[in-house]
Write a structure and sequence with these properties.
By secondary structure, the protein is an alpha+beta fold. The protein is built from 17 helices and 15 strands. Strands 4, 7, 8, 9, 12 and 13 form a 6-stranded antiparallel beta sheet that branches. β10 and β11 form a beta hairpin. α2 runs parallel beside α12, α2 runs antiparallel to α15 and α14 packs antiparallel against α15. The longest helix has 33 residues. It starts with a helix and ends in a 25-residue tail after the last helix.
Length: 591
């Protein structure tokens, strides 16, 4: 059984070029991806590159039961931080200042407008039935006829993910004309026809006269709001939803597929954002819907969503639609033709990847407990961070130079293996950091630079462990090629245990800390993994190849593997001299 085993080992030893070719292909592919992406340098954190600082002031919403206190402020900070720094490595900073302010620092290179929208958006989501809608124009003028889509989404559909059946949409609009009189009739008729889809007492025939009078006043007020509503005015859009409650009918605005602003009368909210368990952006290639947002509802939310879609499916357009209202704006208004009771749904419409992910992100991380107003936006310089980076790079260069000098003095010819291994590790680290910037918003900060410097020692330590194992085998009297292979299993075990401990420490540090320390932990963990890759796919195969060269195999005094300098023992096995027939028996002790 021993002979086949040696045969397999010999075969493995004879093809170290495969491993070297594999890591070379990986380096070429990653480098090509870096240049193809256009991001040839790592994205720097705010301490190294500067950025934008946003000051947000908290405001309690009247009638919403929210208060500006430590609990709500801490909750808001946590939600904002997860929105802009979901993986903990984008270097965005969110912190409180005083009792009612939150400071958000966004590094240069981040889409500051998108980040500003995400941190300041309350993300209060409601599903409201559409009562009537039309294209918005300036007040006092006739609005153009509704577009064929008649909606903010231009043909959005609600899909039951369980059955994957998309509903149809007729595309007609219920508003008969653009005149104020006809608008008032449309609103009044819609409010009467609505009859509170949730089935509350206010919609029953037995409602008291006083209640009917109150409803009439509310209807008149809503008619006036709808007639005067000009969704093309940004200030009007910002003020339209203030002070409203989920239980009230409201007017709202949204953009249709043609870029026109649409105005709506919407019924009371039937489902809210807390009923959404999970949301994610998905590229739907099966139906050709493009980017969509899928939602999974909670048990309670699934029942409410099934009830409202079942009621809406019995109505004519546009009252078979429900509007998805995010912070007062209609982001989608899909229609339904049947009850969606599976507990999950898909929103399709005018989404691109960015808008779909932004909506899914805000839905997943929840609504802010307070409303925030943007007080100031300032630019942060990186003068101090630049000086610290310069000093850090000098320290790293000095450390690397000392490691190289150490290798040249103590390991001599073996530094031909160690130095290229360090260079390969450095190239992989740089390229991967550059690629992680656009993919997971990784930003290199000063602690991350420290982590990369510490990794130089970790990588060099792995080489030293292997070299010393090879030297131990030579001291035992073995020649170089067998010594290289016999030393590898023991060195491999030691290297894996050591790197596992380093990676575990980095993982724990990443989990239990926040802010810049996570950058240090992330970089340390990344370089530890790369150390294993480099040792297995580059250092060991290169050592195997060089062991066949006479300079190393014969133990040249500058090879670092000179048996005499290492104090090698005599060979483990000697070749006996052939004895002559006349020589007599050989004493075993003399043999």
């Amino acid at each position: 059984m021993a002979a086949p085993k040696r045969g397999r080992n010999a075969s493995a030893q004879s093809k170290p070029g495969r491993s070297l070719a594999l890591i070379l292909i990986a380096i070429v592919a990653l480098t090509g991806g870096m240049f193809w992406s256009g991001h040839t340098t790592p994205r720097l954190g705010i301490d190294l590159a500067g950025g934008t600082s946003i000051t947000l002031r908290a405001e309690a919403e009247p009638g919403q039961g929210s208060a500006i206190n430590k609990t709500n402020m801490d909750t808001a900070v946590d939600i904002m931080n997860r929105r802009v720094n979901g993986l903990g490595v984008s270097e965005a900073e969110v912190q409180t200042q005083g009792n009612s302010n939150i400071i958000v620092n966004i590094p240069k290179g981040t889409n500051s407008k998108e980040a500003r929208d995400q941190v300041g958006t309350t993300a209060k989501l409601y599903f409201r039935p559409v009562l009537t809608t039309e294209v918005s124009g300036a007040p006092g003028t006739a609005s153009p006829s509704p577009s064929p889509s008649g909606s903010a989404s231009g043909g959005d559909k609600a899909t039951d993910k369980a059955t994957d059946k998309a509903t149809d949409k007729s595309g007609s609009s219920a508003s008969p004309s653009g005149s104020p009189t006809s608008q008032g009739r449309a609103v009044s008729d819609a409010l009467k026809a609505d009859a509170t889809p949730s089935g509350s007492a206010s919609g029953s025939p037995s409602a008291s006269p006083s209640a009917s009078g109150g409803a009439s006043d509310a209807s008149s007020k809503l008619q006036a709001q709808y007639a005067a509503l000009d969704c093309t005015d940004k200030k009007v859009r910002a003020a339209v939803a203030k002070g409203t409650r989920p239980t009230d009918p409201i007017v709202a605005c949204g953009q249709n597929s043609g870029g026109q602003w649409q105005k709506y009368v919407l019924g009371p909210a039937e489902v809210d954002g807390t009923d959404v368990d999970k949301a994610q952006a998905v590229l739907n290639t099966t139906t050709g819907a493009g980017w969509t947002v899928t939602m999974d509802f909670t048990g309670k939310g699934a029942k409410k969503f099934g009830d409202i879609t079942g009621k809406l499916a019995q109505n004519q357009p546009p009252q078979n639609q429900f509007a998805i209202v995010l912070d007062g704006d209609v982001v989608s208004d899909p229609s339904v033709s049947q009850a969606l009771t599976s507990g999950s749904a898909e929103i399709s419409g005018n989404f691109n990847q960015e808008s779909a992910q932004s909506l899914a992100n805000m839905l997943s991380y929840g609504a802010l407990p307070l409303t925030f107003k943007e007080d100031s936006v300032t630019t942060v310089t990186a003068a101090l961070g630049g000086e610290q980076l310069h000093a850090g790079l000098i320290a790293g260069a000095i450390g690397l130079a000392l490691v190289v000098i150490y290798l040249l003095i103590f390991y001599r010819g073996l530094s031909v293996i160690a130095i290229p291994s360090l260079l390969v590790s450095a190239v992989l680290t740089y390229v991967i950091m550059a690629l992680l910037g656009p993919t997971i918003n990784f930003a290199l900060n000063l602690p991350a630079v420290c982590g990369a410097i510490v990794a130089i020692g970790i990588t060099a330590d792995s080489f030293i462990v292997y070299f010393e194992r090879v030297r131990d085998e030579i001291r035992e009297g073995r020649t170089l090629r067998p010594a290289v292979e016999r030393a590898w299993p023991r060195a491999r075990r030691t290297i894996l245990v050591s790197d596992f401990v380093s990676f575990l420490a980095a993982a724990v540090l990443f989990i239990v800390t926040v802010g810049k320390v996570q950058g240090f932990a992330f970089t340390l963990g990344l370089t530890t993994v790369l150390d294993v890759v480099v040792v297995f796919l580059f250092t060991k195969p290169l050592m195997t190849i060089l062991a066949r060269r006479k300079f190393f195999a014969n133990g040249h005094k500058w090879s670092g593997l000179d048996p005499k300098a290492l104090g090698a023992k005599p060979p483990l096995r000697r070749t006996r001299r052939p004895s002559s027939p006349a020589a007599g028996p050989v004493d075993p002790k003399e043999a």
